[in-house]
Amino acid sequence: MKIMKFGGTSVGKPERMHHIAGLVTKETEPVIVVLSALSGTTNALVEIGDFISKGERSAARQAIDKLEAHYQDFISKLVSKPAQVAKAKSVIAEHFEFLNIILRISFSEALSKDILAQGELLSTKLFAIYLEEKGISHVLLPALEFMSIDVNDEPQIGSIKVKLTQLLQQNNDKKIFVTQGYICRNARGEVDNLKRGGSDYTASLVAAAIEASVCEIWTDIDGMHNNDPRMVKKTVPVEQLSFDEAAELAYFGAKILHPASIWPAQQYKIPVKLLNTMQPEAKGTLITQQADGVGVKAVAAKDNIIAIRIKSSRMLLAYGFLRKTFEVFEKYKTPVDMVTTSEVAVSLTIDNATNLKSILKELEPFGTVEVDENQTIISVVGHEIAQTSNIVKKLFESILKVPVRMVSYGGSPHNISLLVPAEYKTQILQQLNKGMFGLE
Ligand code: ASP
Ligand code: MG
What we know:
With about 450 residues, the protein is α/β, with parallel strands linked by helices. Helices cover about 40% and strands about 20% of the residues. The chain contains 14 helices and 16 strands. The chain has an 8-stranded mixed beta sheet with strand order 3-4-2-1-7-9-10-8, with helices on both faces. It has a 6-stranded antiparallel beta sheet with strand order 12-13-11-14-16-15. A two-stranded antiparallel sheet has the order 5-6. Strand 15 (about 405-410) and strand 16 (about 415-420) form a beta hairpin.
């Protein structure tokens, strides 16, 4: 059994939905189709939730009406037989009535999750209705019946496995299963989600739970590219990556795969394929346990990074200084990405400024604290590149003239990260494209 996950743009237009139905029915193996919400829907639902939370009901109503009009238009081109048109209309009526009811009751955090869940519920139900119109036998598996997270918001893979296997066994004569990405139930049994972009995570968890043959992530680009196509002219898809390489890239800015979605596939040894809905014959990127040889695979950039330097002569020959420093970040639940130290100073980076003021205040007694905002982490990723001396030489030769603020080398053998002021990002990505890949 395989997993095919389609993102928002792959289902965002009626003709795209028709197209992916074609891709799914071509399969010989049974398949679980995981769908995102139609592109733009989750953003619209976030906005609706915000309006309701601020008591701006008329703005919320307008946004709900606008979204409903979009869906009415969508189904008018999705289905054409009277029975399915009627079903699609009633699905839309049901979900938008729900939003309109929420508008009238008092807002809560739990309700906002219910609002966000509507996108994936709609996309999967509408897709199932289209399959029905085409006479394609299938089963809709409600994610809320098997996908769950615990009190720490961690997926409960054991329980997902048991429940999902049961649901599949009840339908063991079927070959196509459709389910919602992103949504789940939390420890209180309420509707919740796996955070923005979480449909990839669903796909990986489902793949792990049923030990799928492959987890395919279908988007609108032909795999993970060696560099950011928005910043450099010529980029090429990377054919193969190890999970470790993919994790570094996904975390450090490659937008193609949600970083959390790596571990379930990695742990259960399920190969992941990144494929392009618009170009299904393209090879894409295959992610597996092993890397196919040494060498630089790709570079990625992560924006909005804040660098903090704490300088203190008291650090000299002292112990416990780093622990105290990191405890401040732990207290404010702020992850630290890069760290470099000298005998009298430590520099580190964070990408979450929510508690920056309080953090800085608590660091003050430790020494002189300097902050540089608006930095970018550039990560160069490839199997064992940090141990390959000519790669390191080439890397630094290709970025001469860029004021590098920090270098992280040796934390992982597969990654060298540089911190640079954001205004140098395009330049450095272009220079690396030329220097490391020979592409301009
Ligand atoms: N629809 C959700 C989002 O936009 C989940 C996803 O698409 O992965 O964040
Ligand atoms: Mg997505």
